[in-house]
From TrEMBL, chains A, B, C, D, E, F:
UniProt-recorded name of the protein: Hydantoin racemase
Membership in a protein family: Belongs to the HyuE racemase family.
Pfam families: Asp_Glu_race
Lineage, opening ranks: Bacteria, Pseudomonadati, Pseudomonadota, Alphaproteobacteria, Hyphomicrobiales
Organism: Vineibacter terrae
GO molecular function annotation: amino-acid racemase activity
Length: 288, 288, 288, 288, 288, 288
């Protein structure tokens, strides 16, 4: 803990970049200004107002030209992202790295890199889970598909959050894959919902959030896949209109704000949890 | 979650105020500018630079004219502090309340008040435990005495943090009580340590932090009693000098930074965890 | 553990006393003989037959002239009750203090006081949870309102009973407050039910107890708010008539019987869990 | 829960009886008055003053003519004891059965029998663990040997008490077996200790109790094997003399007092936890 | 761990044998070749192809001439089976003992015996739970009756598997007892189902398995009572036909395969978990 | 579950292959017969006697030309190994894949691949932990360095084994890196130990295993890094010589034997835990 940095210098890194021709477009241009390229920029902009920030488009995807959902795909994009984290840490240009994407690919490993440089690294699922802990007793995650659900499950276990996770709720709007039908594109759902039209995806999220509250004991709602983050304000409004006072979170803002906290406090990660190659001291035992 | 507030307006409230004549003085004047009255101001000042803040001296203690350590005393000062929280929330002058003091008296109840006004309330132990969760796997709390230890124990249980707390370590420097001998005043220890002289209190904290790391599995160190918060930078240096890369936290800065995060994110607490008198909707069941 | 006391000398302390004019009357006169002032006396009398007992009406409420439901109110009445516990312990007249009321205000702190005098202190929720542990694997709590539910939730966590609590079930019969409508007064429900007439409150309790058994895995049923304790024999009968062999408990009898056990065994509380101001010995660490 | 029985009618059943010629004698005559046959009668007598009680010597041991320590032996004596429980319940003479012996052989099964007759059954380890829960946060068990330790381990798991058990501590004074050397007979230790002479067994218990308190986090001490129950008052005195305020329990008194509580409250066990052959209602699911 | 045994020599032991006249016949002849006497032999035969095996009919039942369901009955047959385990281990003819039967009577004790001979002992419920852990996150047990469910509950607790058990699901087809009606004999259900006719028992199992998957979070299905093991291939097919990719296990094959693993690896059980009478070394403490 | 395969056809895949010039050689030739290339072949050979097996040398390392220890390195080799798993599953030549290496790189993802082909995948740490569960209550892992310890920590959490892991014990013999001193090469230690000479590495393993048993409550010992698997028979002998009856496991044999069990039982992984891209059915919720 040290004097807070007066100025935040963050690199935001997308989980991966798809090649031209992918049918998956979540509302961000492929090129142009960073503002145009950041999904849900309007929601995120105020949180970046006091930040000097760059946006990295993500390492080119090598698993295929479609968004990630399976464990294999998450492992692949995680591994591809690490060199970017190394480079960013070594550049001296940033005091925090914000990993975008809902399933946190490469996050634990990126923290290890960040620790060796004294640079904080945050990610969307982990940050949401921690903010949820400041608000209530148990959270549920509203998420898009079976495979993506199991990645969120993996993260809840890995982050030792099972005692706080009431459930992962599936709205079953899987991400598009060129070799599979895509009957309900998420960007179409988003556009409908943002125009005030009925969106089966948003309706499903409302239904599952209510089930999470009434049946599973959730008092805070998180969003799993970043392709569903656009629902945050709309889902919050819908719950409020019904009378359920459950905060709804999404990942970008949580990851940015947690990064600010860490930078201000002058901390990044415990060197015992993320040791360097040959640490000055070693422990005879680790316990759980 | 909403647009981040451009400006933080915080009220910091001491846990209680003692009457003139108390022998307990932790480095803050009783009157004068707020800066002079805030303990450890030098360490905290940078974190308040972007905050419009007031400092309330705390409700006059009714349990006796000595610092709190027992459960009874914590309950008493907690109850005494709530009217201040009510008043501050109702005043419309603040967007967050930061409860000072290591044992979090009245914190859960103050959050209930804050929730009804949509105002975030943070406190030193809870904030430290949450920040610790961002850094490593398990924390230990270095604390001053048997009775105060058991208040920290109570908090770890109440906050459902038992799975993350490696241990509470006692350095046995109890707070002064006029009816008991006070052979090792904490302010004397602080002054010695800050002058670079040997301090048995700081030495005990180093010894217990090492034991927490080596024997209990801690990878982050918290400080329990606010009267020990002055040790944070010194204990951090001592551990680093030995080679243990374990972050050391204290409560003021954590509580302030967590308050900023909540205010920025436009959230305070779940209305399901802290329901109002007759909430719009009610749940048939709650589970753990 | 020592020779059992041949005679029990107990002080029963109400959680608080309301001023004349409160609309809340749970079947006990404000003055007259102690028997007339103890709610549900008929159910409780046999358990007091071998006890020399006094009934304290409780400290006058300072939170308002209505029954407690919120965390703030519980903290307030808890703090107000402690001087009575001190006085009773110091009087030498009692070998146990039985704290009446469903939400256990001031219980942990009162145990600290009792410990310093070697006097057992029991309370209704804690005693019920312990008796439940003698009977089955998991209990559910039938309780009256959202806010009161969350107090029970708080207690289950604080008593480290989360692993045994299947659920808290809400029948949504909130306690009266003068500034809020009171469409279903609890004493009216009680009188109807005790006359053998249909009571929506009792019916709701039956429905939630069945749901607790069938859906949540409860095998013992507790009652949360003391204003619902009158339901115990009726709820027990209803479940038996249906064929569910789940014991139904309430707080007064459990708290009295647990007090007898402790007095007989010559124990009150562990001095390590509830240490005195400067205990003879101190522990370097506490773990969970 | 019903009107408390004015009079307790208990059958105490030894875990087993050895044939003449066994070298194991724990201070009770084989015949004569029940008072002479009950081990540690002087300590237990006051707790039986308000009880009409009989003492059954236990079913003749079929595992061998030595005290039980291994899992096989516990299973054997447990099975042998059940017909006695059946007979006692069917006789109509008792309102509770108190199973003597430290390792609770046949206890869960005896509760099933008791439930079908509406008769409470208590046992020494289970009762101690429950009383410990009324006193502090975590208990340790001081016990006599590796094999007996693992029976206590088995019980802690079976009773779902792992979260409350700080440790089982072995003093390594195994019970005698005719085919093995018996260099430190427990009755010799007892007699020495009760005469005020040095007893290595008691000294070991003191040492392990201190280690349990200082290293394992225990705040209540239990005794495992009934052949060690005689140490309770002496161990309590030794700890008090050192300054450790940890209650020390033993099984006879706890089991008797818990039986009184259950009889007074008119309860025995949940019919859902211990269902009869074809219960009136059945549950579709059970959860943990 | 040592060189794998080239040849498996197993004794399979039934949980008990009923006298002639029992109405309970689960598809195995009372005499004749071992193949004719082993229930579900067709399903099990391939797993025994590389095993030299004997089948013991089980000790004659002494609890009554009906199958076991209650805790008392399980304790009785467990105790009766131990001498067979002793004898088999001492014979030197076997390198593993496979305990047949769904509720694992005498299993923990038999492992103690096996350990003292260096011979592996496996049992059906324990083996299934371990295999389930190799396949997914949480299992549910489909089982036959209230009393048998509670035996399975007992085993899940005893094996410290509560964190992995999503639920025990009751299909309510209790085992026959001569003094109770037996309207739906299990062998009739089996024969109907195996002929391809509708079986209410199998239908109930399908319904409860689906509920376990959809409501309780199970991803692997176990069968509780061995009298329901015949359902394994049929239940697996039914789930697959519906589209649920949840493995369905049963006990015989799991217990046999686990025995092979242990024999191959040259291990049986930890001597610390199952110590001998006077082990070479003893531990000062055991923790959980 | 189906008829056991009469013949096992396994592909063993090394975690990675280093380029010529690496100083790390754990006893296996780079080329030649598979037997010569498999580390610790003498110990493993008997377990492969009934297996048609191939050995893949592993994907060429891209993280550097040294063995893996850090999280980044594990992620890298895990991602590199997945195409080999794909190819092997698609080839139709194998009915199980055995992933060699102590830290299980790519294991969870490889199971997802295997599931889609109906092919079992096993790995060394996971297999050891499961076998340990068949033997005792709690295991400890003896491991080589801080960074590798934290990978094992990660696995224990991910596999939801924290309740069974007593500790991870560090012997501090880190793996060689060309840019760091390598004062105690592991192959030198191995050769010394196997010649019967004193080996500080083996001595450290003995010391930490004893500490795990005496202090942490372990009753089974696992080995973390595959570069330490050679110690298994020697460590087992040393513990036995001292009198500690704790089984010592290593990964190759456990992974091979678990693979045999799964192949015999005709199962690989739950399709709910490892769903395919668009599974036939989806679940509304997942719980923990």
């Amino acid at each position: 803990m040290a004097t807070p940095s007066r100025r935040f210098r963050f690199l935001l890194i997308n989980p991966y970049s798809l090649a031209p021709g992918s049918t998956f477009r979540m509302g961000a241009a492929d090129d142009g200004a960073k503002e145009a390229r950041l999904p849900n920029y309007a929601n995120t902009a105020p949180f970046l107002a006091d930040v000097d920030w760059d946006l990295h488009p993500g390492a080119p995807a090598t698993h295929g030209n479609w968004p990630v959902e399976t464990k294999q795909e998450f492992l692949s994009v995680g591994a591809n992202r690490l060199p970017l984290v190394h480079e960013a840490c070594a550049s001296g240009r940033y005091n925090a790295i914000v990993l975008l994407g809902g399933g946190d690919p490469g996050y634990m490993e990126a923290r290890e890199i960040g620790r060796s440089h004294g640079i904080a690294v945050t990610s969307c699922a982990h940050a949401q889970m921690h903010v949820a802990g400041l608000l209530g007793n148990r959270f549920s995650i509203i998420d898009v598909s079976e495979t993506h659900n199991m990645q969120m499950y993996h993260l809840v276990v890995q982050y030792q959050m099972t005692g706080r996770c009431a459930s992962i709720r599936n709205i079953n709007f899987p991400l598009p894959k060129p070799h599979l039908p895509d009957v309900q594109p998420l960007d179409v759902e988003r556009d409908k919902a943002q125009r005030g039209e009925a969106s089966p995806m948003l309706d499903a999220a409302v239904a599952e959030a209510i089930a999470a509250i009434e049946d599973d004991g959730a008092d805070v709602i998180l969003l799993g896949c970043s392709a569903a983050y656009w629902m945050q304000p709309l889902l919050q409004q819908r719950l409020q209109a019904i009378g359920w006072e459950a905060p709804v979170l999404e990942g970008y803002r949580c990851a940015i704000e947690v990064a600010k906290s860490l930078v201000s406090l002058g901390i990044d990660a415990s060197g015992l949890a993320f040791p360097g190659e040959r640490p000055a001291r070693w422990r005879r035992k680790k316990v759980f």
